[in-house]
Amino acid sequence: MKNIRTPLTEAVVQSLCAGDEVLLSGVIYTARDAAHMRMLENLDHLPFDLKGQIIYYSGASPTRPSKAIGSCGPTTSGRMDEMTPKLLDLGLKGMIGKGDRDASVISAMCRNDAVYFIAIGGAGALIADSVVENTVIAYEDLGPEAVKKMVVKDMKLIVAIDATGKSLYKK
Amino acid sequence: MRSIDANVIVSEVKRMCIECNYQIGSDVKESFLRALKTEKSPLGGRIIGDLLKNAEIAAQGELPICQDTGMAVVFVEIGIDVTIRHMSLKDAINEGVRQGYKEGYLRKSVVSDPIIRKNSGDNTPAVIHYEVVDGDRLNITVASKGFGSENMSALKMLKPADGIDGIENFVVDTIEKAGSNPCPPIIVGVGIGGTFEKAALLAKKALMRPIGKCHPFEHIAELEKRLLSRINTLNIGPQGLGGTTTALGVNAEVYPTHIAGLPVAVNINCHASRHLTHEF
Lengths: 171, 280
Fold this sequence. Notes:
The structure holds two protein chains of two kinds.
Chain A: E1 2-5, H1 10-15, E2 21-30, H2 33-41, E3 54-56, H3 84-89, E4 94-97, H4 103-112, E5 115-118, H5 124-128, E6 131-138, E7 147-161
Parallel strand pairs in A: 1-2, 2-3, 3-4, 4-5
Antiparallel strand pairs in A: 2-7, 5-7, 6-7
Chain B: E1 2-5, H1 6-22, H2 26-38, H3 42-59, E2 71-79, E3 82-85, H4 89-103, E4 127-133, E5 138-145, H5 147-150, E6 154-158, H6 163-178, E7 186-194, H7 196-206, H8 218-231, E8 247-257, E9 262-269, E10 274-279
Parallel strand pairs in B: 1-3, 2-4, 7-8
Antiparallel strand pairs in B: 2-5, 5-10, 6-9, 7-9
């Protein structure tokens, strides 16, 4: 199990291979369908600087007063495929989601040295244990689809597609 | 004539919305414990172990099993000798959903219009299916249907000549195409016969049956068994990363159909498989 931190450097990204199990710590940002659509319409005014950052495809359930966050597992990454290459070209270094990505995403990952992680779909309560802080930073009107800044500690992930394009899904 | 207070319906629907989102079914848990022993992939086995851990955390009542707490699908069986007082049945169900999703800290995942896409803010409206039956009983089933698996569902109007092989191939192809997206291990609901919309409804209803309880018709029970075995040799496995546990169960429902047609619908559920029934 490798320990890695955000923001991701090129050296760290290049050291990761499909199949590696990692523990991720640091800041990550959540965005899913509606937030992606809005970000692509406003590329000049993105809610955070993409350079070296990771987007987590997740829309958490509401936070109880006693907790840092609600249940917060990954959603299906494939729905973001068409919108992802543009963000990678602007400096995004990693994504966390579930499921395979299309060829356009993989080629954008190779050309930009980026990595795609998966978390266990359906394990949102377990994943919530690794979230320390959670703040809405943009698009609050989107409710569960708002962009959140999350601080995570030892978030358990698997490298599904690495920066060379090697994928766990290609059998 | 039996009269039922709508407020009782509100509170039961609310309770079911909350409970089904925090507790996995005993059928799912038993299937997981069996799969831990049979799963051939070590990573697959670890994932099933993590899903069991996830269920334990959720059962403590502070975090739902999954953040996608679904769109509420409600099946109502109402006797012709029942009246509801104080509120319409539809309003009572939606009020129960509204209260359940708010008080249970469940995610509001419903947009009021499929094109404008503004969140309705309270997870209403529910999708409600009514069936009028004889007598004075009222049964309500609440299912919180997640969309990772719903999105991978499919329907096809087969030709009668396609027969049982055509049905099996369509179901297996649908699961193969779904791959990792519906968060395997999954439960597969199959609806065969009727019309276009009847097949879809049968597939959804099939998901309400406990895993392992086979169809009363022998030829359908055998079809379920064959499908489960074929699906689990696809090597999709837990989370689509390979393995022998792709589906925990296959449930099929059938209905008479037209001489010219053979509708088949496949509705997929993830392991969370949230549904509860209350008899009033």
